[in-house]
Design a protein that fits this description.
The chain has 149 residues and is an alpha/beta fold. The protein has helices at residues 3-12, 37-48, 62-68, 93-102, and strands spanning 27-32, 52-57, 78-82, 85-89, 108-111, 129-134, 140-146.
Length: 149
Amino acid sequence: MNRKNFLQAMLMLPGALALRVQAAGPLVNVYKTPTCGCCGLWVDHMKKNGFELKVQNVEDTAPWRAKLGVPEKLQSCHTAVVEGYAIEGHVPASEIQRMLKERPQAKGLAVPGMVSGSPGMEGGATQAYSVLLFTADGKTSVYKSYPGK
């Protein structure tokens, strides 16, 4: 009996300890400036929600926004890309997961600015904000609204 057959047989035994290998979530490439602390907190939020992150510190995120087709009016402090979609700013992981499930015809999602209460910007008063879905021609629509507190 070879090793593969042995392991398969062991996993079929009643009460056998099954080893589960959990696959990493989707890879998110993040472009942020090295001095931005809230970007690091957003990265932590994404990791806690099952995403795999590759963080690249850059001097300026504007070239990445332009390359990914993010309109300047949607600008925030960091830019990311996941499975071909651009992510601008403090977008909640739940909305990124929803987008990856639904696969809308869009360039990506954005939370413009640095909204208090969004992932990575917790603490203090929570502002109302919207996650915007944006298309290649720059049109936006509200993907999800979050109330302030």
